Amino acid sequence: MAGELSHLDERGAARMVDVSAKDETAREATAEALVRMQPATLRLILDGAVPKGDVIAAARLAGIMAAKQTPSLIPLCHPLPITGASLEVAPADERTLRITATVRTTARTGVEMEALTAAAVAALTVYDMCKAAEKGITIEEVRLLEKHGGKSGSWTAERPQSPSR
Asked: 121: exposed, middle or buried (C-beta count within 10 Å: 0-12, 13-18, 19+)?
């Protein structure tokens, strides 16, 4: 483990970390989620033929909205002034939709949780909009890809070889 768990006080009780002594710096985080489905379901999405509407546009909007709501969903997250949030939703292969969320701020703490929340909620939106076509859609590998800024600097995850099974 890189350090002590900072969300626990000396008695082991949960607490919100006090970041008031930290400097405000530019921070950015990127996370991804993979949504796996049958090729026919992915084709419906790409062709704009899902009865509920434009799946990719809805997923993008849901992810951006989720990034802004992260402290309402994750109990110990600080409310942050999100200065930018973007989502890319694109096929990774014939069965997989890759969602990549990037969130930016200038603050005293990072936006990793906001990026992860954005990717996860965008993936859930894809499921919700496509569940009538396929119940077996899976959401996999929700993970942080990289973060920049703050005292700990930059970090980048190792990339897997291929998104396919």
From this structure: buried
Query: Please, how many CA atoms are within 13 Å of residue 156, restricted to the half-sphere of its CB?
Result: 3
Query: Distance between CA 52 and CA 13 in Å, rounded?
Result: 44
Residues linked to residue 101 through DSSP beta bridges, in sequence order: 31, 87
Q: b/e map of 3-19 (b: 16 or more CB within 10 Å)?
A: eeeeeeeeeeeeeeeee
Domains of the chain: 25-156 (3.30.70.640)
| Catalytic residue from among 9, 54, 93, 128 | 128
pLDDT, one tens digit per residue, over 54-75 is 999 999 999 999 999 999 999 8
Closest Cα partner for 32 from 137, 159, 135?
Answer: 159
Please report, to the nearest 10 degrees, the dihedral formed by the alpha carbons of residues 138, 162, 85, 29 taken in order: 110
Q: Looking at 7-21, 50-64, 67-81, which range is the least confident one? A: 7-21
Closest to 53 in 3D by CA, of 133, 130, 134: 130
Q: Is 93 a catalytic residue?
A: no
The angle formed by the CA atoms of residues 26, 32 and 35, to the nearest 5 degrees, is: 160
For residue 89, what are the β-bridge partners?
99
Rounded-to-integer distance, Cα 100 and Cα 148, Å: 16
